[in-house]
Amino acid sequence: MNGADTAWIIVATALVLFMTLPGLALFYGGLVRARNVLSVFMHCFAIACLMSILWLVAGYSIAFGGGTSGLWGGLDKVMLAGVTVDSLSGTLPEILFFAFQMTFAIITPALIVGAYVERVGFGFVLTFSGLWMLLCYAPVVHWIWGGGMLADGGIFGETGVKDFAGGIVVHETAGLAALIIAVFLGPRRNRTTPPHNPGFVMIGAAMLWVGWFGFNGGSQLAADGGAAMALTVTHISAATASLSWALWERIKYGKASLVGLVTGTIAGLASITPASGFVGPAAALLIGAVAGILCQEAVNLVRNWLKIDDTLDVFAVHGVGGIFGTLMIAVLGSGSWAAQLGGLVIVGVFTAVVTIVLIKVVALITPLRVDAETETNGLDLSVHGERAYDMSS
């Protein structure tokens, strides 16, 4: 065990949890109508709780167990069987590696929340998220990070898929699942209402930015120069994408908005994520500059051309950003085109199939969408019996 590595990953674990609670919750919560903000908080918080338990029960074993098939890790580490305070994963206590990866298993299904807010049933949220994490996310983790079929020495030969912190594992899977759910749900009854609290959006984005240092810097799994470089390029990409998004807004619409600026931040963070362990500051500047414009145009494509109500643009920002960053690894010469493209296609098809099957199965158990009256009145009071704001008190 290395004490410095252990100390850094303890901090990184806290930072990644901070991304979901409260970062993502505030970012998403500010973007919806006031009558639905508590439901967004509820979704993020409940998903964090449920994924933590499921990761302990089976998720970690599926992702990082000792399975030799290349398809999944098996069940040898169910309930952390055989893992003690003395067990090591590289230079880290294995129990810490478990906790660090658990925070990734929390935020990935939580990202999908943005696609279905304001119209989805709470029972569906929990049932789908739990099954999706176990049956889609965990196997993909094994394929790329757990020594499975897409890793080095797998089906793409000596150089496998390069995905430092989750461009494919986190952002492509969550983005595609979000888009598919949005298609099955259909559009909201009222799509024209603006974000009820842009201040929440900015605060949440700022928390995500800070937490992302743990997300990308922690993925080095060591306290060394590689972690410092990953942290630095993450920051540069986020800063550049924020400005390129705002500038592109200014050119197209005559005004640059706060919500646009901070959405650009998230686009830059998602885009640098897979490449953060393989590129330097100049490449991060390029990735961020393109991401701010590319993801903004993807929002326009999904909303206005495809007419899909992915409410908070999960696919356009996270999905497109993660895919773009994954391809930039090949563009910049740090990975093979065959592996990067092949990994995207294989994981994309697998995610789509699993997501569609789960939507249909879970819809047989619990309603996918709330009724019209509940949607009109808002989920906060109708589903959870609470209001976010009581102006009379």
UniProtKB/TrEMBL annotation:
PROSITE patterns recorded: AMMONIUM_TRANSP
Pfam families: Ammonium_transp
Domain Ammonium transporter AmtB-like: 7-389
Top-level taxonomic group: Bacteria
Compartments, record wording: Cell membrane; Membrane
Bilayer disposition of the protein: Multi-pass membrane protein
Keyword annotations: Ammonia transport, Membrane, Transmembrane, Transmembrane helix, Transport
SUPFAM superfamilies registered for this protein in UniProt: Ammonium transporter (SSF111352)
InterPro entries cross-referenced by the UniProt entry: Ammonium/urea_transptr, Ammonium_transpt, Ammonium_transpt_CS, NH4_transpt_AmtB-like_dom
Cited Gene3D superfamilies: Ammonium transporter AmtB like domains
Membrane-spanning intervals of the chain: 6-28, 95-117, 124-145, 165-185, 197-215, 227-248, 255-272, 278-299, 311-331, 337-359
PANTHER family for this protein: AMMONIUM TRANSPORTER MEP2
Protein family membership: Belongs to the ammonia transporter channel (TC 1.A.11.2) family.
Name of this protein: Ammonium transporter
